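User: Predict the complex.
Assistant: Input components as received:
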Amino acid sequence: MISEFLIKQIESVAGRYPHRGSALLPALDMVQRENGNSLTKEDIACVASLVGVSPSKAYGVASYYTMYNKEKVGKYHLQIDTNIPATLMGAGVILKHLEKKLHIKPGQTTADGLFTLDEVEDLGSCGTCPVMQVNDVYYENLTIEKVDEIIESLKKGIMPPRWDNSHFASQCNILLKNRADASCRMITQYQQKGGYKAFAKAQAMQPSEILELVKYAIVRGRGGAGFPAGMKWSFLPQNNKGPVYLICNADEGEPGTFKDRQIMEYDPHLLIEGILIAAKAIHAKKAFIYIRGEFRWISEILDKAISEAREAGFLSECDIIVHRGEGSYECGEETALIESLEGKRGCPRLKPPFPAVKGLYGCPTIVNNVETLACLPFVLEHGAEEFRKIGVVGNAGPKIFGVSGHVNNPGVYEYPLGTPLKKILEAAGGVKGNFKAVIVGGLSTPILTAKEAETLNMDYDACLKAGTMLGSGGIMVINDTVAIPPIALRTIEFYAHESCGQCTPCREGSVAIKTLIKGLIKGHGTKEDIDKILELCNTIMGTTLCPTGDAFSMPIRAMVQKFRAEFEALVR
Amino acid sequence: MKVFINGKECEAKQGQTVLQAARDNGVYIPSLCYHPKTGPAGKCRVCVVEVEGMRGLQTSCTVPVKENMKITTNSETVRKAQRLVVDLLLSSGKHDCLACEQNGACELQDAAYMLGIEHPTFSLADTKTDIDDSAEFVYREHAKCIQCGRCIAGCNTTVVNEVLDFGMRGHDTKVICDIDLPMGKSSCVQCGECSQLCPTGSIIDKKTRGKGRHWQFKTVNTTCAYCGVGCQLTLHVDQAANKIVQVTGREVVPNDGMLCVKGRYAYEFPSSENRLKYPMIKKNGEHVRVSWEEALDYTASRIKEIVEKNGPDVFSAFGSGRITNENNYAIQKFTRAVVGTNNVDHCART
């Protein structure tokens, strides 16, 4: 049952949104927390009537997002990320150890009701794998000993504090300039270091001037597509009388990617300043930060920073609301994100109309990635020319590269766009073992062999020329201890799990590919099956409603084509 | 306006989609999630075509026609994509046409036939069958669902009952009622709109199951006799048995295919044994069959007699919600103008 107190809280959350339907996801989360970390059907129906949607819509939402537990879970929900970077970095060992220690398999709960073990998809913690999420807390860089310590502590009812011992370095000192100094989370410290000066400058400018400046700087979208932010803004309809919304995409779900969290966790005001600059340029009076729900502690850091900024009077013209996702990769796609923010299942919309014309609540909306927005204070403060000087023109500015997999110091490294991959890998302590292959832009980009990657420069155009994509800059290094077919299987398992299920080629095609690769690995595949996989990839590409079809058919095709011998060796 | 479909000049109307223009010109493009009533969804991806000047394949249900647009619906690229989509759909469900109620009236079957797919290539279907037989009139079989969403669009935007929606996600996506209840336990009022919109045999009319093949029935268009709205419907008649076996709504005014539970499913009354089929007059304590002339003359003379003796207010007319507005109008007119009283009432007043 839902308490009177909670009903009041849900009402107050609903009041923050222009449309109360948006409160569905947060309301379900609040009820789940109050009721022992799981949702009953009756709770879902109750929430539906409180928010004012049909019961089927609420259940459709609750069953879509993975963070809602429709079945009872233990007091401590142990969630092990086993996606590609995690697998490369030993998550399998950790999972096996936990299974043995707790005598349960993934999906099961211990008899005493203390622990539920689950295997989950990418937690956005690729540089610090293996990682385990216990309820809301991330435990990173795990070893067997650390796992034992955590379990012993939990048995005593004590949540151990989380630690941060990740690697990072910055050549540009723009996006990660405050990474080492957690005190910059406080507005006073941030301002002391010159923060909010760029916003003050923007305040004195006309929106059109800011737009022109950003357009001239060519700030390409750091989320993955590389579309210039200024140009995106210029698609907003002229003479629009209604509201315009700005959404900061902080969903960070692409496996291999863990860059946005570095900005949000260590330099939240940098993002807020970027948001305020963009909001001014596009006349937005309300901005949302859509952050993946697993990053709960980061969302709290943001909430705190926003209230500081509000107190300082910076939000007088544009308010910022932090909205948490509830577990869906698909919501990183901008129209799926908008649907999710409206309180719906994360299914992408048909385009056109594009969000700039018809987005959130049917109003013109701009969706920009965290890193993109965090570039803006530099552009305002130092000018577009200075920004263009970093990297190469057309591929300008700083970029945070997340390096994971088989390197000695996995972590985040801020370099100018166009920096040789070799240099970034060196910064990450070099490849561990014999360099076999690398995925340079997040899991949805085609894999490169070590040879192909040798002279690669890390910018949008150079990557495209090399037959892959810069994407989110999530670099996953693979050495020769690992075979490609299991990597391909784990990749397609991820996409099959995350497909929203809306369109046929993605929903069923991903499962078809998964079945074929599994068959090959189990030893009952044929050579024709390998061709069938390629055929599926080729036909699915460009046939789906949103880019997710391409996101799995491109990398799978590259894995099969470039490492075909390894797949053929599985045919008996 | 002028468009070119497969090189042939065709006439198209402003505001039409490529799919609509092709259909109007007799060009078949297989499509599953599109229905004129629920609109373009762009989800099944079966209706893809090539349009000159546009990159990659386009869903014809979502692309509006433009003057001189050059559309290709039958290239190998198009056919390959269409075949894959239909193949995947056939592979992921239990589409056994032999036993299926919708055999011969199934859009998935039509698409497979047109594309020449005999057997599905993959086996992706779940082994467990998921049948919902809980509701009184609507029968659901998830294994035949292709997730086109037409039933959901119909339930939420056409009849606005808001019972159905999608639950789960990915391959596990399914149509749910309320909080994933069996339909019979849900808030569904059994209007049957979902059944009418379903392109396959996933949602069907329970009472029609096993009553015969679609092509065996004679169809008769008529007006619903239940109330004065005048919903247009089609009776599907088993002529040998002289029985109505199914009723579907016609997609014309005033109901655009929608029907209520009575109009769609309570169709047995025409063949009821107790039905009044001719006029009768009670003679010597027993109802006796008489001619219409005798019945009308007798009634008219008795009304006249009684009203002359006791005044018009002893007369009262009782209309019905099951007759037309015109009938009810005539009844009140007769009562007021001929008899001279305002005593008019009808059965649906409460």
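Chain A has 25 helices and 18 strands.
Let me know if you want any component modeled separately.
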